[in-house]
Amino acid sequence: MPLPGIRATFIWVALGCLGLILTALYMQHMMDMHPCPLCITQRVFVILVGLVALVAALHMPAQTGRRLYASLGGLFAIIGGGVSARHVWIQNLPEDQVPACGPGLEYMFETFPIMEALALLFQGDGNCADVVWSFLGLSIPAWTLVAFAGLLAINVWQGLRRSA
After folding, report:
1. Which residue in 56, 49, 118 sits closest to 77, CA to CA?
2. Tens digit of pLDDT for each residue in 138-157?
3. Over 50: is that where the pLDDT of 41 sits?
4. CATH code, domain carrying 103
């Protein structure tokens, strides 16, 4: 028995997010590309979009629930896309305007109050300006921005569509 279209779409979103995270982990562990604070933040939002889609697929909600899940997934995609856009912006700054390298992620969360640590995390630092890999002229954060745009589009479509 085939899955209803709405449920299948949520499953595909969850699988797409899983693929993004597995790619990031492969690049980190097999290609020795260590993520900067903004990269880690983007990963968190990819995971959140994927988890919302997975819960929606398992729950198989009616129209109101589907719209709620799609809105939440879309919100996480917008926030993640904003982080990606900031990262791309930092990567394209002139060298003399790149922010100084900041403390490590672990140090930030151990030393600063949570809101201050989060503010520092979203700011990015000099490590975030390095372009360590690109494909078709786009860096990893630029591809992540494209992925968030796609995830947002799918969630908007899920929220607006009428039936399976």
Report:
1. 49
2. 888 899 999 999 999 999 99
3. yes
4. 1.20.1550.10
